[in-house]
# Entry
Amino acid sequence: MEINLKEDAEGAGIFSSVKNTDDFYLQLGAIAGNRLGKKENTLVFLGEIQAYPHLLTMLKFLSQEDRYTYIASGSQLGVALSQTASVPIGSVSIEEMYPLDFEEFLLAMGCGEDTISGVKEKFQFKESLNEPLHNYMLQQFKLYLLVGGMPEAINKFLENRNIAEVRKVQHDIHSLYRVDASQYDDNRKLVIRKIYDMIPSYMENKKKRIVVKNIENTLGHKQFSDYAEEFEYLTNSGIALSVQAISNPHFPLLESENKNLLKLYLNDVGLLTSLLYSLNINAILHDEKSVNLGSVYESVVAQELHAHGFSLHYYDNKQRGEVDFLLDDYRNLSVLPIEVKSGKDYKTHSALDNFLTTPDYYIHHAVVFSNERHVFEEKGVVYMPIYYCMFYEAQQVTDNSSLIIPEIQLPK
# Structure
């Protein structure tokens, strides 16, 4: 049984006055009585539950009574959870949904699981693909830059491969995201829209980070902290990805964040290329020399890493320069620096070189992603093709037995 609570709030308001589980069951039975069975064969799907925050709290009691199986979803659920006084922790399992990542895009495009497994094995052993397979993967990756991971955009592309229709879907999604800002406090929704609209232009700047004085043309009258709620709204709602600066990196990175230096990326690379290039697909597919794809490549890597469980950070140091991404390297209890290159100068990276030669950072190695086919290591840098980014996972476990903590024996 599916119930769209946003539609209910805008219409009959059947669930608006529900105060307890008895009220809930009464209203549920009134509209779906003949379809409600037992727990093992009845799933109640509560869509857009953020429209009724009181139902978020009630999930705990619905779970305890165990009458049916429930799934709650919402496009603004992240915001609603952060604003709900009594979140039912322990009674619900929270799963964050993302646009399709590149591996899922490959599956949607008809690439076989055996092929993907074979490519992953090459990645794990730091080996290159043969040239035909590399060319195939790179072309699919460029298609992904155009289409992105929004399910509706992908389905539209699979229908007729018409990029104009895909762009129409992406334009509608982007417009709906802007409308979502209207659900925020009336005094701040225009500021949220302004920040969201400025993300592509920030990506084209050299530093790519948020410049506070440009948000409302304040000329220094406002500080970064004045916009903390707006930044949090954009990231909690899932329509933007935040990347925090680190100037003195040590594992774990969370201890070294600089809250006043922030990059924002759109949550889907297809939305970005739609805004930047519209119907001109040559900028992506044919490596036009006049077009710098650096921001697009950075965005897609941010999207992949975020979907795979990483907290996003970048390196910013006045003396040593800037590195695109820093990841917690849990295996080595260290930090993994990553540079993303879209051009042929992928071996030029002075900031990364400075980073690697800083003994206080205890870095094992670095990674550079580019269009280059060959996988090789040189001076502590592992060079990999850009599509290998789909295989990086925040917590890679190859042997579950390593997670079992043995009992501590009392000495005799």
Remarks:
- The mean pLDDT is 89.
- The chain has 15 helices and eleven strands.
- The CA atoms of residues 42 and 295 lie 46 Å apart.
- The two ends are 61 Å apart (CA to CA).
